[in-house]
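Researcher: Here's a chain I'd like modeled. Treat it as a single chain, no partners, no ligands.
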Amino acid sequence: MLENFMFSVNVSLPIFVLMFLGFYLRKKEMLTESFISSANTLIFQVALPAKLILDTAKTDFTQSFDWKFLLLSIGGTLLFFGLFWWIGAKVIKEPRKVGAFVHGAVRGNYVYIGFALIQNILGTATLPGEAMLASAFILPLYNILAVIVLTITNHPGEKVDLKTVLKQIITNPMILGVLIGLPFSFLCTFTDFEIPFAVDKSLSYLGNLTTPLALIVIGANTKITSIANNMKSIIMACIFRLILQPLVIVPLAMLMGLGSHAILVLFVLFGVPAAANVYIVTKKMGGDADLGAGIIVVGVLMSLFTLTAGVFILRTLGIV
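Model: Modeled as a single isolated chain. Structure tokens:
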């Protein structure tokens, strides 16, 4: 039992140490607004796409493609999206806050925090095929759902602009990274093609920047001041995001007989705190950005305990 607990702490704690470091360095003004903005661009536009290209190219999707896994990933996301929207509309009176609430409760930080957690648990720099499969389907879905809920709640009566949704999907660097890597994945799987060493190593160097720099930037972007005025909605969104979703999805995955990697990826996908894009996209589309920021901050703090507890349970059950 103690060994499982220490394992859980050891794989979760480094993530939050780097995030706290980012917060501390920002408070001490060792990280400037300009640096944080540039670092965020570097991660989003260069380092993360490089990692996704390489990891996708090295994934044999014929081994990891599982309809039951996709059913839970996509179906669960859609189910929770509808449920949280219904609850938000009942509990929260201001439409702009409903959009931010739903967005924060559904859109998890799967790529930055989730990838780091999966790598720590598995003790490898390469992500399992299920993690890449989820990226290929869930990242576009997050964008579609965000545009729908924020358009409807921020601009009642307006139609969802399908061109805007498609443009956001096609031009998203994370999605582009997966799409670029897919042809090379098929080449490596079905032919004798190998990624040239120089290309492999270059992408690897860039990809290795992603996790530590992203966690530091997340910490640096954390703002405590955005919490007080929206505490009830924030706590409710965080409970839905961090506790309710994994409690529903993981037992279902086990009942459906999914493998250990698939269960781990689903736990991470549905159990990580809200993504930074919750704030960015909500603000861009005229929603309540302060509520979105508060969900991110409180979610990160709560997830130190919920993710550690979740990993401990999975470890005790022999899944990881």
